[in-house]
Design a protein that fits this description.
The complex is a heterodimer of chains A (about 425) and B (about 90). Chain A is of the alpha+beta class. In chain A, about 65% of the residues lie in helices and about 15% in strands. In chain A, the strands form two sheets. A four-stranded antiparallel β-sheet of chain A has the order 2-3-1-6. Chain A has a two-stranded antiparallel sheet with strand order 4-5. In chain A, a hairpin with a 6-residue loop joins strand 2 and strand 3. In chain B, strand 2 and strand 3 form a beta hairpin. The relative contact order of chain B is 0.32. Chain B has about 90 residues and is of the alpha+beta class. A four-stranded antiparallel β-sheet of chain B has the order 2-3-1-4, covered by helices on one side. Classes of the chains: A alpha+beta (about 425), B alpha+beta (about 90). At the A-B interface, strand 2 and strand 6 of A face strand 1, strand 2, helix 2 and strand 4 of B.
Chain lengths: ~425, ~90
């Protein structure tokens, strides 16, 4: 299995150009062939990619899409003659085109929705109205051979339709979704936002006045009078925010998940910084970055829920497992265990035979969870063969032949807990 | 003979260890990490005779610094049976 981000990016590029060339050779639409290739690749391709490769390929194509979108709109701008576009005779085909696009969309959405009957009507209206046109329509119009004025007419029509969908449909989409009551934001979420905003504002006020006082713009007297009031106000608001979080776990989970993602992104950019400063080698970088990418790709709202459950109804802890795992596997092992709702204490230790650093994980668990833990550890702690250089007796010179040694895996000891307490 | 493994925060290490030693328990401290955000923790291993287990737990409980929020847990405690104990 090849996993190289440069290779994967190159392959997707080859796929795009290849699809275009083959389609043109067969006298069918190259643009549509590329769209289909993109659809297939986007849905099936990422399955075989590691998270790192996936992120890199996606960001490459995001950039490519951004650049080509800009170029397409620039090109159509060069082709379009606005004086022709907004004349009475130019307006008629444009209105016809818009009408045709809307009707076609209506036929497809309302006509084909009998296939899946459980789509509510309100969703159908939104799907109908949401048919925004963009780069593909423009590029199809631009790729027409120049054979007379009808080419220009078609390009004008395409441009007008795109303009209409973006300006009219795009701007009315928000109010429409709200009117159809499709986005039901929970009351708690709104309450949280309100309180959070107030708390941030109060804290900003406090900080601002503090800075002004320190610069001597206020007398210390005023500060002494105001600061306790402001501080109390800000603390009360912070308390109010905390209260919402405790009342509605989903609000808390959302913010925790955002914080977790931010933390992971910060870690990733720190790693990139270390790599470009030459502090860490490429090998270490890719090893660590892969770990972070795996965590980023995983939705972690799950474990927050699991931890919540665990706090609410704690299982009786009857066993303690000491798992000795290799340093490289620790992060994955802990992530896997946390996902299973288990908390872990880690102790640094070192192994006997090779004297390698390893980590002993202490895991308290309830009856019947052992299998789950063993499963999680088996998946995260790989066995691998490493080569150990050792001199062979009788050799005239020290040629280090390497001896294969199996390392990794995990050593597990399970002990019975007589008494368990948390306080 | 029992082995008490207790996991407490680093801040509690000093008072808890002192209190245990004052009361005649032997303590081995292993520095460790865990929990949310990988905070520093101390794992204490305390070997005690069967009848003194409750006394040791009481000492730990009393020497933890009290927190304002009672829902935050400060110590996790496992008591394991020791099959054989000897000092050489």
């Amino acid at each position: 299995m090849v996993d190289d981000h440069l290779l994967e990016t190159a392959l997707t590029t080859v796929l795009a150009f290849g699809a275009f060339l083959i389609a043109e050779e067969l006298h069918v639409s190259g643009v549509l062939a590329v769209v289909v290739a993109g659809l297939v690749n986007g849905n099936i391709g990422p399955r075989g990619m590691s998270p790192t490769t996936h992120i890199l390929v996606t960001s490459f194509w995001e950039y490519a899409a951004f650049v080509s979108n800009s170029i397409i709109f620039l090109l159509i701008g060069l082709e379009i003659d606005p004086t022709r576009l907004f004349t009475i005779s130019g307006l008629e085909p444009i209105l016809l085109a818009i009408l045709a696009v809307l009707m076609a969309r209506a036929v497809i959405i309302y006509g084909l929705s009998w296939i899946s009957k459980d789509i509510p009507n309100r969703w159908r209206h939104v799907m109908f109205w949401g048919g925004l046109r963009g780069a593909i329509s423009l590029i199809l119009a631009l790729s027409l051979p120049k054979l007379g004025t009808w080419t220009t007419d078609l390009q004008n029509m395409a441009f007008a339709v795109v303009l209409y969908t973006i300006l009219v449909q795009g701007f009315t989409m928000g109010p429409m979704v709200r009117r159809m009551r499709l986005t039901e934001r929970s009351e708690m979420q709104e309450e949280y936002e309100r309180r959070h905003a107030r708390a941030v504002a109060a804290q900003a006020a406090y900080d601002h006045l503090k800075a002004m006082c320190q610069q001597g713009l206020f007398s210390a007297h005023t500060w002494d009078l105001l600061s306790p009031l402001l501080k109390e106000h800000s603390e009360q608001l912070a308390e109010a925010v905390k209260e919402v979080m405790l009342v509605d776990p989903s609000v808390e989970a959302e913010e925790l998940d955002t914080a977790r993602r931010e933390a992971l992104r910060a870690q990733r950019s720190a790693l990139i910084g270390l790599l470009s400063d030459g502090v860490i080698s490429e090998e270490i970088y890719s090893q660590l970055a892969r770990g972070i990418d795996i965590q980023l790709a995983r939705s972690q709202e799950n474990w927050i829920g699991l931890i919540k459950e665990k706090v609410l109804e704690p299982l009786p802890i009857t066993q303690l497992m000491a798992a000795i795992v290799q340093v490289q596997d620790v992060e994955n092992a802990i992530a896997a265990l946390n996902e299973a709702g288990l908390s872990v204490t880690r102790l640094l230790s070192s192994g006997g035979f090779l004297g390698r650093r390893n980590v002993t994980l202490l895991i308290g668990f309830a009856e019947g969870q052992e299998e789950q833990i063993v499963q999680a550890l088996a998946e995260s702690c790989r066995r691998r063969v490493e080569y150990l250089a050792s001199p062979i007796e009788g050799m005239p010179f020290n040629l280090p032949p390497s001896t294969p040694v199996t390392v990794g895996g995990a050593t597990l000891f399970t002990l019975a807990v007589e008494h368990y307490e948390v306080f | 003979m029992k082995l008490i493994i207790t996991i407490i925060s680093d801040a509690d290490n000093e008072p808890v260890s002192q209190a245990l030693i004052t009361d005649g328990f032997r303590v081995t401290r292993i520095s460790s990490t865990g929990g949310f955000l990988r905070r520093g923790q101390s794992t204490l291993m305390i070997g005690v005779t069967d009848e003194k287990v409750d006394a040791a737990i009481q000492v730990i409980r009393d020497s933890l610094t009290p927190l304002a929020d009672p829902s935050i847990k400060r110590a996790t405690l496992f008591v394991l049976n020791v099959e054989d104990f000897s000092q050489i």
